Amino acid sequence: MRFGKNGVTSFTNTEPVIIEFSIEIKPTPKLRINDPNSLRSKNKIPTTRQKLEELVRECIDVKKMSFVDTVLYLGVSSSTIRRICRTLKIGRYSNPWYLGPRLNSSQVPFGWNSVHGFLEKNIEEWGIVEKMFFLRVEGKSLNWIAAEMTRLEIKTKNGGKWYAKTISQILKFNEKFYGKKVRRTHE
Q1: How far apart are CA 156 and CA 166, in angstroms?
Q2: b or e along 104-124 (b: 16 or more beta carbons within 10 Å of the residue's beta carbon)?
Q3: Do 44 and 38 touch, CB atoms closer than 8 A?
């Protein structure tokens, strides 16, 4: 063994290394929709969507069954159960973070952070977004706001330079959270 550049170790004579682990790995049960114990095989599956929704709600909310257990118990496809859960906002679809704004782009907008694919306000950046709204309503141009952000040495999300188009996109994206369109007012 010898040391190379930057303290990296390189081996001149390679010998096989055997590492033994004593970890028990349990096999996961296969998802069998045609399980003999499912309601479908017992011909007790409801015929109407409303009755199926009631059964799904009972399994997930009352009996506290997992998603997979619900699929196996009812003998219905996982996509059907997922669609019902999403519609009724039960199970993992009842979390408030799921109901928040969703990130539809690879780039996170200024004023926001991405948490599990959903947007959450970034407190530090949100104050700057509110200042942009205030300046725009006050009558300042997009170029003036961009120059002001640069003068105050406020960095963009990527650490770049401020442009009028950047300000325009930030204001346009965040208008829906203010509940009204923000336009420049002329005095």
Answers
A1: 9
A2: eeeebbbbbebeeebbeebee
A3: no
Q: Let me know: does 119 contact 112? Beta carbons within 8 Å.
A: yes
Name the token pair of 61.
């909310």
- Which tens digit of pLDDT belongs to each residue from 118-148? 778 888 888 899 899 889 888 899 999 999 9
Q: What is the DSSP code (8-state) at residue 102?
A: B
DSSP helix/strand/coil, 60: helix
pTM across the whole model: 0.46
Listing DSSP states for 162-177 in one string gives: --HHHHHHHHHHHHHH
The per-residue pLDDT for 185 is: 55
Residues 6+ apart with CB under 8 A from 183: 136
Domain boundaries of the chain, sorted by first residue: 28-94, 112-178
